[in-house]
Specification:
Number of helices: 27
CATH superfamily of the largest domain: P-loop containing nucleotide triphosphate hydrolases
Helix content: 40-55%
Number of strands: 13
Distance between the termini: 48 Å
Shape: elongated
CATH architecture of the largest domain: 3-Layer(aba) Sandwich
Strand content: 5-15%
């Protein structure tokens, strides 16, 4: 192939192609009218690699790129070649490993560039719109974040709706077609008339007619508003209308020239054919050096006339008054969160009612004393009322009934059997939880128990239990031991009436009371339940876990759909997003806690001896702690599945290690120390002391829970900021 000279590059193509391509050539943008000394983006010898990839393997290699002010620059290449990564480097979302990147002659994040902020408009490859919003609400939301004055804002929005042929502005984003959503996404990128517009695959997945309309809009922006536009695409032919196109492959920029120059240089009629030729040449480095054209900077003569000025049809960047500030951004973010929650009724109901419903189920299912526990009874005294046929001094043969009648029938349900074997077999097949076996000589042996130790076995009631369920076994044991004390007192009274006085003078039923008396408790109820112990921990755990899951999913979804990147590039700070989220969630947590206390405390008689405001405060803090933990999870995960795995994978360690189900003293000593480092441990102890002991914030084991929660909130926020910056 003979390389054409510079004069031939400006001539029309040969007669064979001129007829078919005359319309295409007439649509070329002229480089000669641009000031090539005024580069909006300048990249020299830039390389980039992720830290997790082994040293020496780069995503981008030796990139040299020049984007003139006011030009349309088409960055072409297949998916995965590094186009999106290059855009993020220009936007300052990532940092180059080597080389330099300049935007307006400065570092990308230089304050004078206003990036992030109103200095750039960004349309990610994803739709990146809030589906609950209408078209007008979407544009109004971003316009407020950019700080556009109200007097100009509505005019600008109306212009964009007409300019991009958008449907009814009150239509919800979720109800629009894919093409309409992409046009709204483009409108968001240009709502503040930015000097730089960066579009990542704006036409992917849309039909050819819409693709043509999008490019019409880009040309209009370039001509009328003098916007510098960088657009990526893997549809090579559509970039014919750009001033400059760059062909990218495997992280390298192969060619950077005007479409017209390339068509004439290679003598081809389609840019796709040129891309194929360039890729083939790239596989042979020696051949590539011979045929690759020079950069447009080297081959284009500087313009001699001033660029054509076209009267704008909308408010220009120079006339838009942009006054962004923290308060406006916070209000917009807060209203956005409110609208999203209020228009997702199912999620709202779930958030508000789930803690109360969970606590209702907890109170119904857990903590109540087990009842109607079946216990088998085999009483030989009933089957053999005369025992062995021998008479004895007390002439009393049914002492066993004193014991059986003393058993609490609400807790233990007695089932009588006629043989010892059948009673024990009922335990083996799980028909009963245990078997009581009374010997036929029980009463006789009991009368002589103190005289002859051989009477002890026959005067002892045997219990054969199923100990696999420790809670049920302990409940039955307590009922049997209580019955035993009542039985002893009854027997003493009877024996004093029927035995000679010389044998009963030392028997006094008062002396048969337990040697240890459990006095009235200093704290707690006389008959404490497991539910009383667990309620404070369950309240905190439910609030915390719900906040973790919902926040993590919300942020990860926004990150995956590029909503987070788009929001951050408007100039919004991460802490502003978090504060607006906390503001809405605090209100929801207040509703959650209020509803929970109004329903749970009176209905289920949950004891509370402390101030209600402290109960609300510690739960709100734990909700905020859960939100910040959810934010932290979103910075270390990339998709919803991973976020859910981390969030709910944290559930069991939290609930097991925080003393919710079991006292910390039941752990091994080393693990006890570790458990105090968990975000909920000291908070659970604090709430338990408030509710059960009536302590105030002045007690050490109360304020420690508040301080610990606040410290964890700060730790999660700092961790989120660190990982978000990596």
């Amino acid at each position: 192939m003979t390389k054409p000279n510079e004069k031939q590059l400006n001539l029309e193509m040969d007669n064979k192609n001129s007829i078919n391509d005359s319309k295409k050539i007439s649509s070329f943008q002229s480089l000669e009218k641009l000031d090539l000394n005024n580069l909006t983006v300048k990249i020299r010898n830039m390389s980039f690699s992720y830290h997790r990839i082994k040293k020496g393997v780069n995503i981008l290699n030796n990139i040299n790129m020049s984007l003139p002010n006011g030009a349309i620059y088409g960055l072409l290449g297949p998916s995965g070649c590094g186009k999106t990564t290059l855009l993020k480097l220009i936007l300052g979302l990532k940092t180059a490993s080597n080389g330099t990147i300049e935007v307006n002659g400065r570092q990308p994040l230089h304050p004078l560039n206003n990036i992030p902020g109103h200095g750039v408009g960004f349309q990610p490859q994803e739709i990146a719109l809030y589906p609950e919003f209408s078209i007008r609400e979407t544009l109004n939301y971003f316009a407020q974040i950019y700080g556009i004055k109200d007097s100009v804002k509505n005019l600008r929005i109306d212009f964009l709706i007409d300019f991009l042929s958008l449907p009814n502005p009150d239509s919800a984003i979720r109800n629009l077609s894919g093409g309409q959503q992409r046009r709204v996404s483009l409108a968001v990128a240009i709502v503040h008339s930015p000097p730089i517009l960066i579009l990542d695959e704006p036409t992917v997945g849309v039909d050819p007619m819409l693709r043509e309309r999008v490019w019409d809009h880009l040309v209009s922006l370039s001509r009328e508003e003098k916007t510098t536009i960088l657009v990526t695409t893997h549809y090579v032919e559509e970039a014919r209308r750009a001033h400059v196109i760059a062909l990218m492959r495997s992280g390298r920029l192969l060619v950077e020239q005007s479409p017209k120059y390339l068509l004439n240089y290679f003598g081809l009629s389609l840019l796709e054919e040129i891309f194929l030729r360039v890729c083939q040449s790239d596989e042979n480095p020696d051949k590539a050096k011979q045929v690759m054209p020079k950069s447009f900077i080297e081959t284009t003569e500087p313009h001699k006339t001033s660029p054509m000025i076209v009267k704008p049809t909308s408010p220009r960047q120079q006339t838009l008054v942009l006054k962004p500030n923290h308060w406006k951004r916070f209000k917009s973010l807060t209203r956005k969160n409110y609208v999203r929650i209020s228009r997702n009724l199912l999620v709202l109901v779930f958030q508000i009612l789930m803690p109360t419903l969970s606590m209702i189920l907890f109170c119904i299912c857990i903590g109540r004393l087990p009842h109607n526990l079946k216990v088998a009874v085999y009483n030989e005294e009933d089957l053999f009322p005369n025992g062995s046929g021998q008479r004895h001094e007390c002439r009393y043969n049914n002492f066993s009934h004193y014991f059986i009648d003393s058993i609490d029938k609400e807790i233990v349900k007695l089932v009588y059997y006629k043989t010892n074997e059948s009673a024990i077999d009922s335990v083996k097949i799980s028909d009963t939880y245990g078997a009581l076996v009374v010997d036929r000589h029980f009463s006789i042996s009991l009368c002589h128990r103190m005289e002859d130790e051989n009477n002890v076995p026959n005067s002892t009631i045997q219990f054969y239990g199923d100990l696999t369920d420790i809670n049920i076994f302990q409940t039955i044991s307590r009922a049997l031991f209580s019955a035993q004390f009542q039985f002893i007192r009854k027997v003493v009274i009877v024996l004093k009436t029927i035995l000679p006085s010389n044998k009963t003078q030392m028997l006094r039923h008062e002396s048969m009371t337990p040697m240890l008396n459990i006095a009235d408790p200093i704290y707690g109820a006389p008959k404490p339940t497991f539910r009383d112990f667990m309620t404070p921990g369950m309240m905190i755990t439910i609030i915390f876990i719900l906040a973790v899951g919902l926040t993590a999913i919300s942020f990860v979804t926004e990150k995956r759909e590029s909503l987070l990147d788009r929001t951050l590039l408007t100039g919004v700070r991460t802490y502003e997003i978090l504060l607006s989220q906390i503001f809405i969630q605090i209100f929801i947590i207040f509703v959650q806690i209020s509803l929970l206390m109004v329903i749970i405390f009176p209905i289920f008689d949950i004891k509370n001896n402390g101030p209600y405001e402290l109960i609300v405060f510690i739960n709100v803090l734990q909700g905020v702690c859960g939100m910040t933990y959810g934010l932290f999870i979103s910075t270390i995960t990339s998709d919803e599945q991973s976020a859910l795995m981390v969030a709910f994978g944290s559930f069991f360690p939290v609930i097991l290690m925080s003393g919710v189900f079991w006292p910390l003293e039941g752990m091994i000593s080393g693990l006890q120390i570790v458990s105090y480092l968990f975000p909920q441990t000291l908070a659970v102890i604090s709430l338990r002391n408030i509710m059960q002991k009536g302590w105030t914030i002045l007690h050490t084991y109360v304020w420690l829970g508040f301080v610990s929660t606040g410290a964890w909130i700060m730790i999660f926020i700092i961790g989120s900021l660190i990982f978000a910056a990596i």
